[in-house]
Design goal:
- The complex is a heterodimer of chains A (333) and B (374).
- Chain A has 14 helices and two strands; from the N terminus they run αααααααββααααααα.
- Chain A is mostly helical and 333 residues long.
- Chain A has one domain: Orthogonal Bundle (ABC transporter involved in vitamin B12 uptake, BtuC).
- Chain A is globular and about 55 Å long.
- The radius of gyration of chain B is 22 Å and the shape is globular.
- Chain B folds into two domains: 165 residues, Response regulator (Rossmann fold, 3-Layer(aba) Sandwich); 128 residues, Rossmann fold (3-Layer(aba) Sandwich), CATH 3.40.50.2300.
- The longest helix of chain B is centred in the first third of the chain and has 19 residues.
- A six-stranded parallel β-sheet of chain B has the order 3-2-4-5-6-13, with helices on both faces. Chain B has a six-stranded mixed β-sheet with strand order 8-7-9-10-11-14, sandwiched between helices. In chain B, strands 1-12 form a two-stranded antiparallel sheet.
- Chain B has 374 residues and is an alpha/beta fold.
- Chain B is 41% helix and 17% strand.
- In chain B, α2 crosses α6, α6 packs parallel to α7 and α8 packs across α9.
- Classes of the chains: A mainly alpha (333), B alpha/beta (374).
- Chains A and B meet through α3, α11 and α13 of A and α3, β8, α8 and α9 of B.
Chain lengths: 333, 374
């Protein structure tokens, strides 16, 4: 189990090159990308540069930090992207341009997320449907629900009170000048998910379940309950990501498209094992930052779009190969 | 062996057609033709552009004349974006104006060529349709299905075209070059000499979008504007905002040209969040953009791909079945742009943010509720 936080990994990486294999390579990849970005655009080290980057990466990072729960437990959650869409579209419908409604609408959205996670977990646990199929079904259902609800054209704007979380920044902070609220949300959510996964019994049970469900059950892990909690963690993180994305960019009907796969990719870059039993929250967040850094770097270099796609694909494959290589050298779990 | 030969033959055929369809997206003659149309006077009733048309070539429809009431069938490529949602609502409302229409049978292809080909087949074989309206998902793939339908009943095509002249008429606005010209000329006229223009596009390779971009690029080149980038947003707000933020970090942007306005507000917010004044921008007739434009008064234009064109196929179908002549084989309709002078006519904060204002729907039954307005 990998338990370094982002900060400690960095300092130890510098201090002891000899212990390099013990540190998740995703942090080196991320650091290299950030250096490359700085070279291609020196303004990146200004607060507006890196803060915009972190703000933009926050939704994916939160989504990956939730997705890793399901991946560690040995499943996938493909419904996360469509839950983002449902959150944005549903919020715009419920808010109906009224700023006063913000708080209860957010509460309703979390309730919806909770329900989605519980249903996913129940279907996978008790009906024995593979999570890939169960959450694919959920994804189609949620996309349909968002469309039915709005008939394809959401009725309202998202008021500034709602957009606060994804758009606003706290100004006048020494050293960094300003702090995007989205980054604050990432820090809080990231810490909670880190703590649950790596500092509690729940985290140990999740890893045991993903590693060998039968053995976990024999040793007294309530596997159904643990699995449901994993799906709930993923769904609630999707709702959070949805609130941030809606805040960042406003209403659109396809905001969540493709996010589930990006989140899974982020987890894999962070060294997660796709069939379960291995994965870490900080590394998944770093994976999400890496993915966003790749997009940003290629934007900055200004390559033509087709070349950019090729390079992006190659970097992704390289990052995943690196993660797998390290895992093999470590001798499995 | 025979099967192999058939396969090889059909592969060659496919390759052949694919080659012949390598369209030129930067056609000078077509550019000039559409530029002329933009300022030409259209025929038809004043103030009702959905009934207007350019030129005077008419299609003879005497052979389709039959007594009512009619069942109109509509094979729709999809209702998968806000533009199509507004359009489809227009069409349903238009049907209510025609007592001679007994029923509108709507089949949604959900953005799939295969499904649409099967849908058209089912509609023909169902034997209920008096006339068939097709909004093709893609041009080449739907051509054979439309040809098959033409043999059985009058067919009206609108929005995207097909590679056959068999339909009674093909209804569409001026075209992609026209859109690109309106937006491009506005930027060229408004921006200072040598200004930096960022081009934001949805995706590459779609004919109507490629022509919009090629027309604008031609104008920028002619007037000596500096195109600092051509980026693809996939119509995604977050991606659009990120792209613009990145460009702003590296330098200045004087004007933003867009091939479709869905993400115009996101692009503007990138300036807002960076504490910069709004750029010169070209959007589209989506309400969220118009409302922001009205409130902040930046320099903008909103060319349109008018959704009122969804009314016209119903009007045309009824005329065809009554044996009246309609413009054909092409029914080219006006494609107005919303300017600062005409903004007030179109902006309406009570309509939903993704509503397309150039809908010609204000006097239709159930407006504004059916369009989601208040």
């Amino acid at each position: 189990m990998i338990q370094e936080t982002v900060g400690s990994a960095k300092t130890r990486g510098v201090a002891s090159i000899g212990r390099l294999p013990k540190i998740n390579p995703v942090f080196f990849v991320l650091a290299a990308l950030l250096v490359a970005i700085t070279f291609s655009n020196p303004n990146f080290i200004e607060p507006t540069g890196y803060m915009n980057f972190l703000k933009r990466a926050a939704p994916l990072a939160i989504l990956a930090a939730g997705q890793i729960y399901v991946i560690v437990s040995g499943g996938f959650d493909l419904s996360a992207g469509s839950l983002i869409t449902l959150t944005v579209v549903g919020s715009s419908m419920l808010l109906d341009n009224s700023a006063d409604a913000t708080w209860w609408v957010i509460a309703v959205m979390y309730a919806v997320g909770l329900a989605v996670g519980v249903v996913n977990g129940l279907v996978v646990s008790y009906l024995r449907v593979p999570s890939l199929i169960a959450t694919l079904g959920m994804m189609i259902t949620l996309n349909g629900a968002a469309f039915m609800w709005s008939s394809g054209s959401p009725r309202g704007y998202l008021p500034e009170t709602f957009r606060f979380f994804g758009r606003a920044s706290i100004q006048g902070i020494p050293l960094i000048q300003f702090l995007p609220v989205a980054l604050l949300v990432l820090l809080v959510v990231g810490f909670i998910l880190f703590w649950l996964m790596h500092r509690t019994n729940l985290g140990r049970m999740l890893h045991a379940l993903g590693d060998n469900p039968r053995a976990a059950q024999m040793s007294g892990v309530p596997i159904e309950r643990v699995r449901i909690i994993a799906f709930v963690a993923s769904s609630l993180s999707a709702v959070t990501a949805g609130i941030l994305l809606g805040g960042f960019a406003g209403v659109s009907t396809d905001v969540g498209v493709g996010y589930e796969l990006q989140a899974i990719t982020a987890c894999v870059i962070g060294g997660a094992q796709l069939l379960g039993g291995r994965g870490s929250v900080p590394a998944s967040i770093a994976g999400a930052l890496t993915l966003t850094a790749i997009f940003t770097l290629l934007n900055f270099i200004g390559l033509p779009k087709p070349t950019r796609d090729v390079v992006q694909g190659l970097i992704l494959i390289a990052a995943v190969v690196l993660a797998t290589y390290r895992r093999n050298r470590a001798g499995g779990t | 062996m025979k099967r192999l030969l058939t396969a090889a033959l059909s592969a060659a055929l496919v390759a052949g057609t694919a080659h012949s369809q390598q369209l030129n997206f930067d056609d000078t003659a077509e550019f000039d033709r559409q530029r002329t149309l933009l300022t030409a006077k259209a025929n038809g009733p004043e103030g009702e552009p959905w009934e207007q048309y350019y030129g005077d070539q008419m299609a003879d429809t005497a052979k389709y004349k039959k007594p009512g009431p009619y069942t109109i069938c509509f094979s729709n490529a999809g209702v998968n974006n806000a533009w199509r949602v507004t359009g489809w609502t227009n069409m349903q409302a238009e049907v209510k104006l025609h007592p001679e229409i007994k029923e509108l049978i709507h089949v949604d292809a959900e953005g799939s060529d295969d499904k649409q080909i099967a849908d058209i087949d089912d509609l023909i074989n169902g034997g209920k349709c008096s006339a068939l309206i097709v909004s093709p998902n893609t041009t080449a793939a739907l051509t054979p299905a439309v040809e098959k339908a033409c043999a059985k009943l009058p067919v009206i095509v609108f929005d995207r075209g097909v590679n056959t002249k068999c339909p009674v008429t093909f209804i569409h606005p001026v075209g992609g070059y026209g859109f690109g010209i309106q937006a491009g000329e506005f930027v060229a006229a408004t921006a200072p000499a040598g200004a930096d223009v960022l081009m934001l596009r949805i995706v590459p390779g779609v004919d109507v979008l490629e022509t919009r971009a090629s027309a604008a690029k031609r104008i920028f080149k002619e007037t000596g504007l500096n195109v600092i980038g051509e980026e693809f947003t996939e119509g995604d707000n977050a991606k659009t905002k990120s792209i613009v933020e990145d460009y702003l970090q590296r330098g200045k942007i004087d004007a933003i040209w867009m091939d479709a306005g869905a993400t115009a507000v996101a692009a503007l917010e990138a300036f807002e969040d960076a504490g910069l004044p709004p750029p010169i921008i070209t959007g589209e007739d989506q309400q969220d953009f118009l409302v922001k434009w009205k409130a902040e008064g930046f320099k903008a234009i909103a060319p349109t791909y008018p959704t009122y064109q969804w009314r016209t196929p119903i009007i045309a179908a009824v005329k065809v079945l009554q044996g009246e002549a309609v413009p054909g084989p092409e029914w080219v309709m006006p494609q107005p742009a919303i300017t600062a002078e005409t903004l007030d006519q179109y902006v309406d904060a009570k309509m939903p943010p993704l509503h397309h204002a150039m809908c010609g729907c204000e006097k239709l039954p159930d407006y504004p509720a059916a369009w989601g307005g208040k």
